[in-house]
Amino acid sequence: MLELEGHTLPERVLGVPGLLTVTSLRHPIDRIVSLYWYEHVAWHVEVKRQPQNAKPFVEWVANWVDSSPYKQAFLRTNPGTNYVEVENYYTKGLVGWGIDRESNPVTGATKTDLADAKSALGRFDLVFITEWSRRESQLAAFDAALPGSRRALERQLVQGSEGLKRDWAAKLMPDGPALEGAMHRLRVLNALDLELWGYAQEQAARRHAMVAALRGASADGEGVATKSSGGGGSCARGATEAAVLTGQGQLRKQLGLFRPPGHKE
Q: Which of 165, 171, 123, 127 is nearest to 13 (CA)?
């Protein structure tokens, strides 16, 4: 299994024969809030035991928007990384922002990027929607494509700390005009991702229905063979083992979990 997290997606990853490609999405604004608590606050409060270093949500958001000097300096040192991203994370991630195309902190992601992101999303075999984690059609689709995955998906191994939010929300993310302004700013800045989010749900539902239909046809004895859409739908899953291993060997140098220094700030 090959994983990519914290780095934008090189286009060539979707063209490797024989790989089953899977991606996951959740509501863009919910993802940002969760990222703040899980990667920033929990790190400083629970891991480092240095709560004085935890920034208020409004300040943290200001540090990570594209126009921020901190973020621009961070990306110059770590091009293509997006482990911490508060502007159109999914759109940028799917088009190789900072890798296959130059990142522009002035214009940010564009409608052209959104169109390309939708195209890239359509090339994935399966799309997992976090908010549908208990939906039977999604669980069945993943278990059919990846036998045994249902149990892992149902368990939700990574969860945020509700106690942390309860104890620190009044200090770090208090209700009021400042928070309302920050949330409004995030909705405006993430307009592309919010549109992509709606499109992703359509794609996911279509994929899940397709898998269900294939499973039904197979159960009826029609012998329907599934194919990987990893190469735009052209790559049969029966690709030779040598070709798959060669492709994986090349990709391992570019894939993995990217958490460059400074992403916790």
A: 123
Read off the DSSP letter of residue 256: E
**Structure confidence by residue, pLDDT tens digits, 198-235:** 999 999 999 899 888 887 755 554 433 334 444 443 33
Using DSSP, state whether 7 is helix, strand or coil: strand
Separation between Cα atoms, residue 27 and residue 200, nearest integer Å: 10
Separation CA 127–CA 201 (nearest Å): 8
Residue partners of 240: CB distance under 8 A and separation at least 6 = 18
Rounded Cα gap, residues 221 and 21, in angstroms: 27
Low pLDDT (below 70) residues in the chain: 1-7, 15, 156-160, 217-263, 265
pLDDT digit string, tens, across residues 69-89: 999 998 888 887 888 899 999
Alpha-carbon distances of 101 from 38, 93, 115, 146, 178, rounded to whole Å: 29, 11, 14, 32, 34
| Both structure tokens of 198 | 């709606």
